[in-house]
Amino acid sequence: MKLTIKRVPTVVSNYQEEGAADRPRAGCGRDCLGDCCLPDSKLPLFAFKASPKKPSSQEDAANNEFFVNLLLGLWEDRMARGLFRYDVTACETKVIPGNLGFVAQLNEGRHLKKRPTEFRVDRVLQPFDAAKFNFTKVGQEEVLFQFENGGGDDSFFVKSAPISVADRAPNVVAINVSPIEYGHVLLIPRVLDCLPQRIDQESFLLALHMAAEAASPYFRLGYNSLGAFATINHLHFQAYYLTVPFPVEKAATKRIVLAEGMKNSGVKVSKLMNYPVRGLVFEGGNSLDDLANVVSSACIWLQDNNVPYNVLISDCGKKIFLFPQCYAEKQALGEVSQELLDTQVNPAVWEISGHIVLKRRSDYEEASEASAWRLLAEVSLSEERFEEVKAYIFDAAGLVQSDEEEVREDEDATYTPVSIAPTHVAEGCLVLH
């Protein structure tokens, strides 16, 4: 059975418009990111350090702020040029009273009256389709810089650098013209290779390097798979800057004890506790490569087995939250209440992490921890299905759970669940081939 949702496409580029996908691209002369223009172009280049290290002095710490200050400065430049569809800095935002402090934003500008299209939710992996909107159609004025490995111990920035496509297609960072928050950008790995929305170890490591370069707890990256509210089937991560903790970052966790011999990578794994969406937390690792290897192996199993998922990259790339989810499937099957559907909130990585973008003023004014919990509880796998998926993930990542008792990460945690019963989550939530 083919599951579809009638939905409004999210606009992330000024070139994502009706009919744009059908226009001929060869020799367009529009300075786009396609083969017709990009190879002969020059763009700013940020070269990141090969092996991130912790700052050992105040000078090192100041240098670490360079990337995020550069990115935000260039983002503000694009705002001054009028490239965004609305001023996200004028959107009302508040922290909802409660144990976790969910963040609500009223963003009526994201409710765009576009022609509804059918979006398949029953396949996490779908072939790249050049006829549909993809990032090669974006104009170069929306690009902030190339993002490449400099191969050395220091990062550096070049205001204008030729595009080298001899060995590999370039990674680029571009604005999202319908931003959710200040500094909202897209990291697009190897843009000319036209990769579908599918994580691999190389792309995930690239995202961790970006988080490490930002060196700020307020700059996070997110990833949505198809079926978990990714709207464009061209490989990309999102990122933005928000100066409050995400609720998921404050949630209690319980460490999963790994068997001896499974700890060589230094990666620690925990389960979220007292949070409406069940998820795993990966952190540590002897290097970014170690963390990227473990988490990308888990993501690869999920996408290869048709389980939609979202990823939040937190704490400067040192902590990863992984959420298998089933909201879109339940929505397609008619199992989500009309009250939740009327909010028009599609719970992707930012919403699941606790930053909820609301499109109606009434929802914003009435937002509460209980309403946020009700929405996000619909996203979560059942406990039984989550444990089943966790076992498969561990096997794929080469992890073996010990028979030892799991250890509470934060014995001093004071959070207790909100005083409502989380919505019942149906068993399964796995879309079968």
TrEMBL record:
UniProtKB keywords: Cytoplasm, Guanine-nucleotide releasing factor, Hydrolase, Nucleotide-binding, Nucleotidyltransferase, Transferase
Gene Ontology terms: biological process: glucose metabolic process
Family matches, as InterPro entries: GDPGP, GDPGP1_C, GDPGP1_N
GO CC terms in record: cytoplasm
GO function term, MF aspect, one: GDP-D-glucose phosphorylase activity
Protein origin, superkingdom: Eukaryota
EC number(s) reported in the record: 2.7.7.78
Domain GDPGP1-like N-terminal: 67-240
Catalytic activity: GDP-alpha-D-glucose + phosphate = alpha-D-glucose 1-phosphate + GDP + H(+)
Secretion signal, residue range per the UniProt entry: none
Compartment(s): Cytoplasm
Primary localization class, coarse: cytoplasm
Top enzyme category: transferase
Pfam families to which the protein is assigned, alphabetical: GDPGP1_C, GDPGP1_N
Residues of the GDPGP1-like C-terminal domain: 247-398
Family that this chain belongs to: Belongs to the GDPGP1 family.
Task of the protein: Specific and highly efficient GDP-D-glucose phosphorylase regulating the levels of GDP-D-glucose in cells.
Protein name (database record): GDP-D-glucose phosphorylase 1
